[in-house]
């Protein structure tokens, strides 16, 4: 099996101060590894959207990064309310975020579309009432 | 590069350093270690921000700059001095900046050329650039050299966002030197001296950041010149009218001045190195897309917060605000200098400055080793080992900055 660095982060729900720290840590690792800046940025944007989603919608969760020499797999797992209609949620601009969250500048409905856009593979598995698992695969150029 | 940086940022007064971990723990780039009871800087990681100078309880950090005596070198037949806008904030009860400028001439300079003039020209050149639509937004200011080095070291992603306009000090020196040449002086007879608020500028200028060849011969310390100037200024009754700068240039002294001058509305200005890091992370995460221009200053308050200054940054800022009433809005124009637009642009590509990275496979295996070692440590970042964090300790061992058999003192104790 290929060598892999496994990183784990707990993401706190509704905490907008700490939101993004998991992404920043992964980003820093990839930079030190000499991954092409464009790929680092793709990982960062997709993962950040996912991390923020867990903060806003799922009362937090866990973020895992499995980093290989040629790719990185981000897995975001929460036990939140789940996504009823994934196809609808994937549409740019569609959002169920509260007005309070929107007032903070989040909840523009670009989360899932951006994940799909920036990651090479984006797999969303969700069950209403149980939670959501997002897997983001980015291959390094 | 590392040696040049050692000579031109900070060094240690070994007699004063007690080996406490204050600087090591608070260095934003983890560039300091405490080895054998004394702090030492890993210059390849240092961005010259001056935090360690500000924080050291023993005042053991020595900032590098040129001592005033360099001005007296007989090879200089025509000497030009360039005060930074923040310099005016150092003086109590200053009603007219011409006292400062006239005083500087009396210290032996042939001409004073305010950096605020270069700042205004930078602003005008920046406005033109920002109007070009194809520029990746947000555009990030490159006037603060510590921020620029931070970007080189950690934000290679943002390369395309860097503003390609020369910092005010270089524009000022370029014009001043040219003017002196027109007066008939040879290049080597002209001495151009900058009164700097910070050691980061010292390194940036000495290493020729952004320019083909440095236009500046000496970088003086704001504090040292201040002490020399005070007694001279007392003798001036009615100063010669030498200032050729407006509010636009003056307000560069503190955070927000540059951005407010460059554009209306969609800008952001942050100061303090940790805040700057935060903003750069956000740009990288793609969350600041509504912003078009970002001004970042490593020092709290902006250049008034530089560690070579004598006055508290907030006091200096207030004084500068009070001086504003005496200035026109802007006193320089691109038409007056008669230079083409590219005269004000950075003169060389900055690719070489971005931190070199190992090939990915090697880096990966080293980071894997760091990660495996990190798992075995207490992860409390106590600093006892002389590294700022458990992770930094692992990196030091894996990358050969510590012997491979180095042991965490916390684990040692538990044995």
Account of the 3D structure:
The complex is a heterodimer of chains A (141) and B (415). In chain A, strand 4 (121-127) and strand 5 form a beta hairpin. The radius of gyration of chain A is 14 Å and the shape is globular. In chain A, strands 1-2-3-5-4 form a 5-stranded antiparallel beta sheet, covered by helices on one side. The longest helix of chain A is centred in the middle third of the chain and has 21 residues, at 37-57. The model of chain A has no long low-confidence stretch (mean pLDDT 90). Chain A has helices at residues 21-32, 37-57, 86-89, 99-103, 111-118; strands at 5-12, 60-67, 71-78, 121-127, 131-139. With 141 residues, chain A is an alpha+beta fold. Chain A has 5 helices and 5 strands. By secondary structure, chain B is of the alpha/beta class. Chain B folds into 3 domains: 1-64, 2-Layer Sandwich (Alpha-Beta Plaits); 68-353, no CATH class; 358-415, Electron transport complex subunit B, putative Fe-S cluster (3-methyladenine DNA Glycosylase II, Chain A, domain 3, Orthogonal Bundle), CATH 1.10.15. Chain B contains 17 helices and 11 strands. Chain B has helices spanning 2-8, 22-26, 51-55, 98-106, 115-130, 145-154, 168-182, 199-206, 222-234, 247-250, 257-262, 273-284, 313-323, 334-337, 360-375, 390-398, 409-414, and strands at residues 10-12, 32-35, 38-41, 61-63, 78-83, 111-112, 139-140, 190-196, 218-221, 267-271, 293-297. In chain B, the strands form 4 sheets. In chain B, strands 6-5-8-9 form a 4-stranded parallel beta sheet, sandwiched between helices. Chain B has a 3-stranded parallel beta sheet with strand order 7-11-10. In chain B, a hairpin with a 2-residue loop joins strand 2 and strand 3. The radius of gyration of chain B is 23 Å and the shape is globular. The two termini of chain B are 42 Å apart. The A-B interface holds A 3, 5, 7, 20, 23-24, 27-29, 31-35, 37-38, 40-41, 44-45, 48, 67, 69, 105, 114, 140 and B 154, 156-157, 159, 281-282, 284-287, 357-361, 363-365, 367-368, 371.
């Amino acid at each position: 099996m290929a060598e892999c660095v496994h990183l784990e982060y707990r993401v706190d729900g509704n905490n907008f101060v700490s939101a993004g720290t998991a992404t920043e840590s992964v980003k820093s690792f990839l930079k030190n590894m000499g991954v092409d800046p464009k790929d680092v940025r793709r990982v960062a944007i997709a993962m950040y959207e996912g991390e923020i989603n867990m903060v806003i919608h799922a009362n937090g969760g866990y973020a895992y990064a499995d980093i290989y020499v040629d790719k990185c797999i981000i897995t975001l797992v929460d036990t939140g309310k789940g996504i009823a209609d994934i196809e609808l949620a994937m549409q740019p601009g569609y959002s169920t975020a509260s007005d309070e969250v929107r007032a903070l500048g989040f909840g523009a409905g670009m989360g899932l579309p951006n994940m799909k856009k920036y990651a090479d593979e984006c797999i969303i598995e969700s069950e209403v009432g149980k939670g959501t698992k997002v897997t983001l695969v980015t291959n390094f150029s | 590069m590392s040696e040049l940086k050692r000579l031109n940022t900070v060094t240690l007064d070994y007699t004063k350093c007690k080996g406490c971990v204050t600087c090591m723990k608070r260095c934003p780039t983890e560039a300091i270690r405490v080895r054998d009871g004394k702090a030492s800087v890993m210059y390849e990681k240092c961005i010259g921000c001056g935090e360690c100078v500000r924080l050291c309880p023993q005042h053991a950090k020595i900032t590098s700059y040129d001592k005033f005596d360099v001005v007296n070198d007989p090879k200089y037949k025509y000497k030009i001095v360039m005060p930074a806008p923040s310099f005016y904030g150092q003086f109590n009860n200053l009603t007219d900046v011409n006292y400062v400028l006239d005083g500087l001439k009396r210290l032996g300079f042939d001409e004073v050329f305010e950096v605020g003039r270069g700042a205004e020209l930078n602003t005008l050149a920046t406005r033109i650039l920002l109007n070009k639509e194809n520029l990746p937004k947000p555009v990030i200011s490159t006037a603060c050299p510590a921020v620029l080095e931070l970007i080189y070291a950690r934000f290679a992603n943002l390369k395309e966002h860097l503003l390609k306009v020369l910092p005010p000090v270089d524009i000022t020196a370029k014009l001043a030197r040219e003017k002196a040449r027109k007066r008939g002086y040879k290049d080597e007879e002209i001495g151009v001296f900058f009164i700097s608020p910070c050691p980061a500028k010292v390194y940036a200028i000495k290493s020729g950041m952004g320019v083909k060849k440095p236009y500046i011969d000496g970088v003086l310390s704001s504090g040292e010149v201040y002490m020399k100037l005070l007694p001279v200024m007392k003798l001036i009754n009615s100063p010669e009218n030498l200032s050729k700068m407006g509010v636009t240039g003056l307000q560069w002294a503190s955070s927000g001045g540059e951005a407010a001058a460059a554009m209306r509305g969609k800008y952001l200005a942050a100061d303090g190195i940790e805040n700057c890091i935060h903003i750069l992370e956000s740009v990288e995460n793609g969350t600041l897309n509504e912003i078009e221009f970002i001004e970042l200053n490593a020092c709290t308050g902006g250049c008034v917060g530089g560690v070579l200054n004598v006055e508290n940054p907030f006091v200096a800022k207030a004084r500068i605000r009070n001086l504003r009433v005496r200035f026109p809005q802007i006193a320089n124009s691109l038409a007056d200098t008669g230079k083409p637009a590219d005269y004000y642009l950075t003169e060389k590509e900055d690719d070489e400055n971005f931190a070199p990275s190992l090939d990915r496979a090697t880096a990966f295996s080293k980071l894997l080793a760091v990660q495996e070692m990190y798992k075995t440590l207490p992860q409390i970042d106590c600093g006892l080992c002389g590294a700022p964090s458990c992770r930094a300790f692992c990196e030091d061992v894996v990358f050969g900055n510590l012997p491979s058999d180095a042991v965490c003192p916390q684990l040692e104790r538990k044995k």
